[in-house]
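Title: Request for sanity check on Transport-associated OB type 2 domain-containing protein prediction

Description:
We are preparing a figure and want to confirm that the structure record we downloaded matches what your pipeline produces today. Could someone re-run it with the sequence below and paste the raw structure tokens into this thread? We only need the token string, no images.
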Amino acid sequence: MQSGPPTSVYRRPVDSWVAGFVGEANLLPGTTRAGTAGTALGPIPLAEPPSGEGTPVTVLVRPEQIGLGPAPDGRAGVRVTVTDLRFHGRDWRLTLHVEGRSGDPDGGTTVLATLPGTAHLAVGDTVDIHCTGLAHHWPAPAPAHEDSVLDLVPGPPD
């Protein structure tokens, strides 16, 4: 069971089921190192300290945490291909494919992104992306409890 203000539940869901229930979620496998998780999207800074170096984790990246180009802090962007995009008024909802490494059995990673409606992209375009902000994580594999219960209570945003 998870109880708390909606912003807390959205940013720090107790498990992957809750993460998906309260909004779209990119769940990426990664490995911890120096306060970040190495993922298909590159190193992502973690909101909470990891339990140890080299620990396998599942990282939650919300679609609105994806930005175009290199990261503002100087981290390089990751090259992706736009595989689908849909205009939603003030936003674009994009499906992006990150090419897998040589020998990767699944052929890469798919992520969802939300970009401003002013973005000019088309299916097939290749662009660089980065993650903004801090990401929540769980020990891998991400727990997904079928008996998860939500109780959203009024409270100040965190």
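Thanks, this matches our download. The chain has a mean pLDDT of 86.
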